Amino acid sequence: MEKLNLICVDDQREVLSAVLQDLEPLTSWLNIEDCESADEVLELMDELDSEGEMIAVLISDHVMPGKTGVELLTEVSVDARFKNTKKILLTGQATHSDTIDAINIAGINHYFEKPWKADLLVSSVRTLVTQFIFDQGLDYTDYQNYLDQEVVLARLR
Known about the structure:
Blueprint: E1 4-9, H1 13-22, E2 30-35, H2 38-50, E3 55-60, H3 69-77, E4 86-91, H4 96-104, E5 110-113, H5 118-136, H6 149-156
Parallel strand pairs: 1-2, 1-3, 3-4, 4-5
Helix pairs in contact: 3-4
């Protein structure tokens, strides 16, 4: 079974470490990468794509130096290589208009305010990866024990 990629980006190392710790239960079947800037994420995504790797989920903070999370997620959403990549905005400082832009322009799949609940984040990632697998047309049976079974059943109907 090939591990799918999940990328987390936050310019604050302590926040990034907390996210990675919360996502630890998923490491048996997902490769989790971390970055500290939008530019670092875009470089990593190019590298992974050139190696034939797939990015199932991108979790981004909003307020970062350089590009904001909404700008990053918008850029990813218009890149055909990542059309099925699921996007989560995880932030404590987005304004109402930022949130609207994240939904309407960047096409985020989930929004979490800091502090987040670890179990809800893990559950959301599991659901989004399940959707990604079906959207990509991958053989889900390799991942079946890890997936959101409700999504699997709904997709098979």
